[in-house]
Request: fold
Amino acid sequence: AYRTDEGQPWVLPVVKKVEQMIANDNSLNHEYLPILGLPEFRANASRIALGDDSPAIKDKRVGSVQSLGGTGALRIGAEFLRRWYNGNNNTATPVYVSAPSWENHNSVFMDAGFKDIRTYHYWDAAKRGLDLQGLLNDMEKAPEFSIFILHACAHNPTGTDPTPEQWKQIAAVMKRRSLFPFFDSAYQGFASGSLEKDAWAVRYFVSEGFELFCAQSFSKNFGLYNERVGNLTVVGKDADNVQRVLSQMEKIVRTTWSNPPSQGARIVATTLSSPQLFDEWKSNVKTMADRVLLMRSELRSRLEALGTPGTWNHITEQIGMFSFTGLNPKQVEYMVKEKHIYLMASGRINMCGLTTKNLDYVAKSIHEAVTKIQ
Amino acid sequence: SSWWSHVEMGPPDPILGVTEAYKRDTNSKKMNLGVGAYRDDNGKPYVLNCVRKAEAMIASKKMDKEYLPIGGLADFTRASAELALGENSEAFKSGRYVTVQGISGTGSLRIGANFLQRFFKASRDVYLPKPSWGNHTPIFRDAGMQLQAYRYYDPKTCSLDFSGAMDDISKIPEKSIILLHACAHNPTGVDPRQEQWKEMAALVKKRNLLVYFDMAYQGFASGDINRDAWAVRHFIEQGINIVLAQSFAKNMGLYGERVGAFTVICSDADEAKRVESQLKILIRPMYSNPPMNGARIASMILNTPDLRKEWLVEVKGMADRIISMRSQLVSNLKKEGSSHNWQHITDQIGMFCFTGLKPEQVERLIKEFSIYMTKDGRISVAGVTSGNVGYLAHAIHQVTK
Reply:
């Protein structure tokens, strides 16, 4: 979760404002939402992902399912795919998850019934970047119709995203081999500070004519973590297909949670549908993104100033909340035990944990770990 | 071509269809008796005062929005368990239970169903009463279980077919799962009397069945939270380690906030810890962790003495209004000159009433009187007001005389 420079959680000012508006609105009550969720939320959420001028939205071939966070959106999408994709109830369709990935991706698809979950090459530990060739090879070799979980931006946990040129190559292979793109978009706006930039990959795939799913989370970019605000955006060939898909998604939702929680969706819908509040939100998002970007650049410059062995440009080249530092497990253990700096054994750090007060200490500690421990 | 060309259009929801048709009707006297939510005597949704107060208190605390634990808000789950089990419950005091926050009743039922599918290897069979809530069947099916039934409702008397139920239950294979509605059976409104519950408890214990209670109306049925939880507490006292799904949609009017809980009564606190760890493993790949807003409101109400007192009064108020509408409907039917026995309307309890009306009669009510209900003759008493109960009685008399 995001932290301020004081190391505190941050409720976005626009969220506070909208919550007050909701509290003061006596016409509102706690009645059930429709099964697929609050209509104004669904339409706005998908619009954010695909863009105001999205041809798919104009063609009315976009559907939305309000879900319990990004996880809920992934799960509804996975359940639907298991029932209806590549045949009926085809649990054998391979599902590819990046190596590494958010560990819950595996569990979501497994619990949805898929029996064959594989990894695709992603992180190149030696060069500390994207293993594009490995990734493309895996796609060439994957059975036709395989499902690929793609991180729309700010890859978790590596922070390493394909460039637009690399996305183009990925899309070309996927199209040729009839692979299904399932995007996980948990950091739109939060990654670069720009909604458009962070949605570039999803929009490119749509423009290339793909049918796809995009699981969106508003946990980070709205700071609404515990309200469980998510959306599954479905892009299909035409309105008729999308309509039938949504009718079947309703059945899946009905046996999972019946209908989604209203508070978080109301906050997001109100914000996104008011030009003023929308601008305010974008500026709050940029505040968060900018702080993370600043911490990245400050950490890198300190490491380079200290002369810490190795190269540290990956700290600023990576994006989003997380960074794969390249520290090995022994070095991580040193950080935790000797320096009381907590990070994952994989060397992943949460950039949000850095503050102007602790930057020096963290940089020095990394320097010690790298020089003392091989 | 599309990946989805072969995807069929899902069948329309029968209950939603009722509301859709109602909305389209221009008759000023129209009534929506399909609604599954409480309405006040003006036919409007009712936000409880204790809920508004709790919301104001929460707002003033300026809390953050950090993720809840996977199992939910601890203050809420503890209070939820205490509400169901009773503060003097040995099971509660000893800690031999685990309660996780669920997405209202549906989500709680589903977590439980998935848990049973994964860990209750003795049987795949879940026995539902005939009839049961329409969503029970697909929930258990999607969780990988199989559905069976035991006799419950007697359409001839519009009441409980107790001997039929006992007969069927006595034949259920050992270690099967039996689902029971704790109170205010949905859709019939027919509940066993306490004497009958005692016999059922003894029988399921003898048959060694796993008991799954669905309690969606505690407090909302009789107006008394302890009375409505009597069956749940009795079974536990008899040494039956039940599992339980609770909803706070109706009794706190928190429908859209999705407040619920799933509880497993265990042998001891250690077992409870192990069960909890497995429940979390089920929840994480479903939605990671539950929504805060409603649970925070419910917790504030249950744990703040003044608010809790106020809540008990308000939930009794809702229950009393429903009970009063039942009795007014019966007295109005008498006034209309109906010679039928309508006693079941006041014998039944909770939001719903199985009127005993036949499909043709229901159709006439819809077409001639703009009174909307589901084809099985079920009405939501919540949709009846002192302003329209006379019209309803008149219409029912017309189609049944």
Q: What stands out?
A: The longest strand of chain B covers residues 97-103. The mean pLDDT of chain B is 96.
